């Protein structure tokens, strides 16, 4: 729904020029400290491209003045569009908002912290030119803490399993997508918000290349371990029914074990007579089953919550304003976006 209104807004503003060949979508959350350096490098990389480009910064509800820096950039660079979201919705929803505003035949996503070098963009475009419709990346010699790399690898494995497409490093967000994939992702995105997995799901010819990876230019990762695990869980439940099916299987397994144990206890009692430590064994077993049960209820809750969110048609993001390029002037986009239902 919101996408169609957006489309017409974009068309209205197309008076400002032909759609560019490439849109570079950059999610930004509290990146004020390094943003100017990032923009300088990205702008230089865009200058060197062999085709026209626009940059779509999505301010994901930053509270550190990032938005002011971005609007200042729009004043001097006509290629730049800034989509300001009303609140922080997370990296993937922010990228989705960028997708909805991007006009390029190819859309490249990149992080704003310079961990992904903008100089790698031409290599991604070369793969698109070679006929692939999604270009994923692997971070060679990734510069992140060990615990984070282990978590990431787990999530990538789960994602590959859930989506049914092999992805070595789906957390690597320097990626390129063809217009057809971008449109499909925008349409599908309510199912589960993990852009690389969604894109892999609709891609006809995906490929993957190795890229270099650097340290953050400023600040710390915006993902806490808890937030990151939430993303992994979201990904699993959003793409498959496997978790809930596993719980059903576990339920059957547990009942079988319980029955076996009951028979064993009866046998022991008949042969050896009553014993005292049996009570504690029972407690231990009870806790294991209770834990499983609570986990199962939580899992069911996760799916019910998803159905609820779907029924409410809660938007994954709300645009407050759009700045820069020719389009912003013609389109009071914020008014065209659906209002967030009171929550
Ligand atoms: N980001 C965002 N919204 C969020 C968290 C992160 O838009 O809620 C952006 C962030 O500004 C950066 C990118 O997503 O441009 C990647 O975030 P980060 O560097 O924290 O992730 P990591 O590199 O640790 O995976
Ligand atoms: Mg980063």
3D architecture notes:
The protein is 54% helix and 13% strand. The protein is built from 13 helices and 8 strands. The protein has helices at residues 2-13, 32-48, 66-76, 91-101, 121-129, 146-163, 179-188, 195-202, 225-239, 242-272, 278-312, 327-330, 333-336, and strands at 22-28, 53-59, 80-85, 106-109, 134-139, 175-178, 206-211, 319-324. Helix 7 (179-188) crosses helix 8 (195-202). The chain starts with a helix and ends in a 7-residue tail after the last helix. Residues 1-15 and 328-343 have low confidence and may be disordered. Uridine-5'-diphosphate binds at residues 27-29, 31, 60, 88, 90-91, 94, 111-113, 115, 171, 221-223.
Quickly give the CATH architecture of the largest domain: Alpha-Beta Complex
Intertermini distance = 20 Å
Low-pLDDT residue spans: 1-15, 328-343
Mean pLDDT: 84
What gyration radius follows from the Cα positions, in whole Å?
Answer: 24 Å
Tally of contiguous helical segments = 13
Please count the beta strands (DSSP E, at least 2 residues each): 8
Q: What spatial order of strands do you see in the largest sheet? A: 7-5-6-4-1-2-3-8
The secondary-structure element order is HEHEHEHEHEHEHHEHHHEHH
Percentage beta strand: 5-15%
Biggest β-sheet: count, sense, barrel? 8 strands, mixed
The shape is elongated
Short description:
The chain is α/β, with parallel strands linked by helices and 343 residues long. It has two domains: 239 residues, Spore Coat Polysaccharide Biosynthesis Protein SpsA, Chain A, CATH 3.90.550; 71 residues.
């Amino acid at each position: 729904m919101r996408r169609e209104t957006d489309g017409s807004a974009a068309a209205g503003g197309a008076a400002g020029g032909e759609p560019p060949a490439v849109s570079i979508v950059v999610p930004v959350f509290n990146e004020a400290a390094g943003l100017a350096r990032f923009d300088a490098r990205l702008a230089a990389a865009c200058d060197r491209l062999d085709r026209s480009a626009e940059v779509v910064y999505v301010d994901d509800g930053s509270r550190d003045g990032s938005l002011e820096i971005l609007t200042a950039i729009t004043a001097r660079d006509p290629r730049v569009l800034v989509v300001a979201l009303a609140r922080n919705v997370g990296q993937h929803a922010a990228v989705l908002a960028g997708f909805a505003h991007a006009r390029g035949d190819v859309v490249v996503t990149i992080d704003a912290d310079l961990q992904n070098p903008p100089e790698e963009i031409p290599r991604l475009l070369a793969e698109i030119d070679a006929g692939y419709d999604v270009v994923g990346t692997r971070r060679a010699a990734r510069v992140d803490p060990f615990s984070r790399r282990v978590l990431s690898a787990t999530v990538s494995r789960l994602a590959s399993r859930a989506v049914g497409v092999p992805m070595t490093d789906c957390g690597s967000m320097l990626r390129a997508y063809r217009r057809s994939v971008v449109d499909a992702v925008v349409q599908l995105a309510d199912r589960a918000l993990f852009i690389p997995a969604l894109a892999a799901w609709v891609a006809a010819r995906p490929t993957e290349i190795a890229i270099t990876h650097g340290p953050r230019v400023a600040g710390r990762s915006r993902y806490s371990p808890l937030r990151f695990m939430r993303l992994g869980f979201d990904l699993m439940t959003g793409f498959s029914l496997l978790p809930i099916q596993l719980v059903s299987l576990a339920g059957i397994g547990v009942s079988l074990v319980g029955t076996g144990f009951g028979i064993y206890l009866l046998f022991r009692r008949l042969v050896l007579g009553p014993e005292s430590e049996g009570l504690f064994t029972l407690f231990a077993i009870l806790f294991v089953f209770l834990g499983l049960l609570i986990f199962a209820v939580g899992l069911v809750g996760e799916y019910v919550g998803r159905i609820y969110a779907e029924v409410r048609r809660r938007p994954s993001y709300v645009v407050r304003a759009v700045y820069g390029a020719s389009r912003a002037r013609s389109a009071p986009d914020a008014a065209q976006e659906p209002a967030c239902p009171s929550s």
